[in-house]
Every structure is written in C-alpha cells, then in structure tokens.
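#lab-general

N.A. 3:47 PM
ok so I finally got the sequence cleaned up, no stray characters, all 492 residues accounted for. can someone with queue access submit it? mine expired

B.Y. 3:52 PM
send it over

N.A. 3:53 PM
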Amino acid sequence: MFKKSSLFSVLKKLVGRWTSEKYVIAASLSFYFLLWFTNPSRKIIAAAFVLLIFVFYYKIKDIKISVFLTYIVSSIIFTGKSYLVQLVPEGIFPQILAPQGYVDFMTISYYHIIAFVMFLFLLRHAYEKKFKLKFEKKDILITIYFFWLVISDILGSTRPEVSLFFSLTSLHFLVLYFYVKFFVISKKEYASLLVAIFISQVIFESAISFQQLVINSPVFKNIEAQVDIEYFGFTSDELQFRFRPVGTFGHANNLGSAMSFWLVCLISYLYKKNNYLVFIVLIAGVATLASTLSRSSWLGFGSGLLFLLYFMEKVKRIKTPSVISKNFLVIALMILILAFLFVFPRAEKSLFGISGGGGYFRVEQIRATLELIKQNVFFGVGSQMSVPAALLQVPGSIYSYVPLGVHNWYFLITAEHGVAALIIFIALLFTFLVFGIKRIWKANMESTVSPLQIGLFSGALSLLVIAIFQPFVGETFMILTFAILGGENGKN
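B.Y. 4:20 PM
back already:
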C-alpha cells in the first residue's frame, strides 16, 4: 500500500512539473498506443474518449479546451458503428475491383459523439447569451455551405436516404468551426496545445505505418479504417506488389495528405522555438510521407513548405531555425535515402503517367465528370452518388470500368452538389485564406500565435494542391484553419 501511494505521489509531482504541452503529448501518445496494443471493442474505445476529456482536464483545468483537444485526437480514428450500403450491384465492375459491387460504409465515428458534446456546449452558450450571439458574414457563409450540401442531397440525389447520411454527418465540421470561434481562440495556450496534438499524431501514425510497412499489410486493429490489402499496380505508373502504409486512414493518399499538413505546421513551430523533439518527429514524419508513395501529397507538402520558407525567410526575414541548419547533413542524407527507396522508383514509373497511368485515368475521369455536371448543374447528383449516376448518365465512360470517384475534389464537389457548392467554397477560400494572409503578412512575428497561423495557412495550401489530384480536401484541417485565421477582429 505504501509503495502504491509513493508511486502515485512521484507521478503526481512529475506531472506537476510538466508544462501543459508536454502533458498533452504524453497523454495523447499514451491514449493512442493503449488503443493500439490493447485493441479494445468499439464501446470501450468510446468510453476511453470520454475518459480522455478528464485526463486533459486534470492538467489544463478548462473543460471546453479539453473537449476540443479530445475531438482533435479523435479526428484520425475513422472506425465506429458502420453499415455497408451497396450503391451498384455485383457484376457491373470487374470482380477484382468490386467483389461486392460498388459499396460504401455509413459510419458513426467517435468524433461525431464528441462533436455532439461540443454542440451541447454551444447551445448552452447561446442560451446564456439569450441567443444574441455576434455572427459575422463569414460565419453565415460557412453555414450556408454546409446546409447547401444537405439541401442538394434532398433535391438532387436519386437515393437521398443514403446521400443525406453523409451530408448530415458532415455537420460536425460546422460544430467544430463555431466551437473554435467561441471557446478556443480566446485562450492563450490553445496554439501550443494544438501543436502538441499534432506532434503526438505524427509520432503515432509514423510508428504504426512503419509496423504496417514491415509486415506489408494492415495489423488488423479495431482503429484501422483499412484492413484490406489494396492491390497497387493496375496502371503503368504504379509499382507492382508494393504495399503502401495507411496508418489509421482509409488510404495511403489520405495519410500522406494529413502528414503533409502536420509537417508544414510543425516546421513553422520551429521558427518560434528550437526543439529537438519536434525535429526528430519531423524526420519520422517525412519518412512516413515518402513511404506512402503519394505523389500528390509530396507535391502538396512541397508547395506548402516553399510558401512557408518564402514567408518566414524572405518576407519576415527570420533566420532558419538552428536545429535545422546545424543538422543539414543529417537532413540531406535522409532525403537521399528516402529518394532512393521511394521517390526515384515512383518517379520513374510516373514517366508513363500521361499515356497510360494515373494521369490518363484522371483526365478520363474529368471528361466524364464534366458531362455529368452538365446534366446536373444546380443540385448535383448527391453525396457518394457520382459513380452510380455516371453509369446511367454517361454510358461508356471510364466509370463503366473503374468504380472510383473523380480524383479531383473540386470536380467531385461540383458533380455531387452542383456549381453553387463550388462557388460557395471558393468564396470561403477568399474570405478566410486571402484575408487571413493579408493580416498575417502585416503581423508581428513575436506574437505567440503567428507561427501557427502561417503554418496553418501553408498547410491549407498543401491540402488545396492535393485536392487537385485526390477526391478529398482534408475538411477537419481546412475548417480548423478557417476558424483560427478568421478569428474575431483578427485576434487569435
């Protein structure tokens, strides 16, 4: 009994000496790896997320920030209660591509549950303010965007009961936006705590991706969204029999996209504070990014990084962090090894991309999608319905052979929700990113938040580049960036 009490006292003193950032990193990593190694059931995972809120609260002493951090932790766990829905019957597509026909999963995940808790906090806040909350034009615009997704699914989809599920469950992003606006950006510590979560996510995803790479398959854990080995090598620019790690994501491209966003944000953090832990995490993250073989993610990361370096070193005249300049040879050696193992083989295959590989596939998809958009200009065809609709409305196109949505998020959102959805999204980009960067351009870089702001902007830029080649845009990160850059009166 004495030993247990002494051990608890030692741990309590140790935790008391930690900064909030170190505590959040330790708590998040412990949480992730406990889930990974114990592999609990869905119900226990849900209960564990509730417990994590109070674990964060023990140190931070702010329940609203604790809920927000738990939501961000949950944002990379995509499993939960799932229902399979068949959108196209068997026999239409090749057996190796679609053995069950064209199917999708309707999933209620853990972040939906946490978002509901956040929504209750928002309702309470509105009640306390007697529903006299201050809304700006940009708040109304982002609300219109998400509700347009719902409206277009009701009026445009041939299977609204399916499409509505996806648009309604996407409203948790809208909850995230207003939660950050009202409860998060007014707190001084939120930037460093958010960076701490990003650090833990890069470490965790890198560790399990390395494990997947070693065994050349998923590990079959309950928090893995993808437990099948996807065949990679159908086209001339793909390396046959090369497994691509996916982490907890549904595809290697999704992992690469998230990693590119995190890495750019962490590099921006180094301009604020030289930190060898962050440097080591960056090394692991870049290796993971390379191993995904995701060319779009490499291009997105490069775009975001170039903008970040230009802004920091040319516009703000800030010297390169010493932790990077002093370890330049280590970085150069790592890049050479990764290029030899992953980049060069993929680049060599990509020389055939236009004539018969991924480039040709994407061009054919866009052609067919344009025809689909012409026939469904205003409301689109509904969430997740672009492939079934193209089979009927654009016969003989690439969609008749390959059951994959168009690999360009801008065309995809237009096909599924109409031209209005794309116009509203472009308006959001101008409202948040363009005006956000104007403010950051003039900001004093001694501010504790400015490095995070420019990191988020650069990370969002990487996501927008990746979206040109993939059917996703990284909504969690985009909405988080919108909310922080669009802080009331520019005070974040």
